[in-house]
Fold this sequence. Notes:
The protein has 128 residues and is mainly alpha-helical. It is 63% helix and 0% strand. It contains 7 helices and no strands. Helix 2 packs antiparallel against helix 6. The chain is globular and about 50 Å long. It starts with a helix and ends with a helix.
Amino acid sequence: xxxxxxxxxxxxxxxxxxxxxxxxxxxxxxxxxxxxxxxxxxxxxxxxxxxxxxxxxxxxxxxxxxxxxxxxxxxxxxxxxxxxxxxxxxxxxxxxxxxxxxxxxxxxxxxxxxxxxxxxxxxxxxxx
Length: 128
């Protein structure tokens, strides 16, 4: 899946790279490709996540990721499970911010990476 500006024959740009990064984030957590048969017509991978964000995210993410979260050790608190979901929502939101239709609306790569790093730190510190 290409950014709108690249698909229209525009030049390669950092905004296009940000878009691609966002698509990869969505692919990883949904374990679906933008070319999946379920994405046709007006519904693409980005629109699919937007339609389900945030309340239905547990129903659309990769079931193995959800299973890992649900099978945290009995010692894992409800708070830890909530932190895991918060981290997931944060990363998917970054993916959505990277895949805005207009290049001017997308966050920059530095902010997207900073957000991913903060999410990682947040979940890591809540485990220790």
